[in-house]
Write a structure and sequence with these properties.
By secondary structure, the protein is mainly alpha-helical. It contains four helices and two strands. The protein has helices spanning 20-53, 63-67, 78-109, 114-131; strands spanning 9-12, 15-17. The protein is elongated. The model is unreliable at 61-73 (pLDDT under 50).
């Protein structure tokens, strides 16, 4: 199989693009989906950091803190566990959306259209350029 540079672009049997503006719109939509995919990757990493920070089972101090007797003041609040479960559930939902979007983008690339392929590549680079500096923000 070889890549196709021309339209008609056929993603599904019901969606056939035979004009240049339609092809341009298709590439732009695929580019936006790829940027959204990169943003979801960053959001999932941010949620993972937040859920690990609020995990009641994770050690918060050094080994000397573990040897000290725990008092009531050092126990996490009652809502702390529910917050962790909520963050973890949200992380799982974001993962499902990310995997679904990734498979949709894979199917677009498997159409063997050069312009759609370039839209995915440019969207991935643009999404990485925009999204990953957001991880460093407090």
């Amino acid at each position: 199989m070889s890549l196709c540079c021309f339209y008609p672009f056929r993603c599904v049997h019901l969606y056939v693009v035979c004009v240049f503006p339609g092809m341009l719109l298709s590439v732009f939509v695929v580019l936006l989906f790829t940027v959204l995919y990169e943003l979801l990757k960053v959001w999932k990493l941010w949620l993972m950091e937040r859920s690990l920070a609020s995990n009641p089972a994770s050690p918060q101090g050094s080994n000397t803190a573990l040897t000290q007797a725990t008092s009531e003041t050092s126990l996490p609040p009652a809502g702390h566990k529910y917050r962790w479960v909520l963050l973890y559930s949200l992380q799982a939902a974001v993962h499902v959306v990310q995997v679904t979007l990734g498979y949709m983008l894979m199917l677009c690339v498997m159409s063997y259209n050069v312009w759609i392929f370039l839209g995915v590549i440019v969207g991935s680079g643009l999404g990485y350029f925009v999204a990953f500096p957001l991880l460093r923000l407090p």
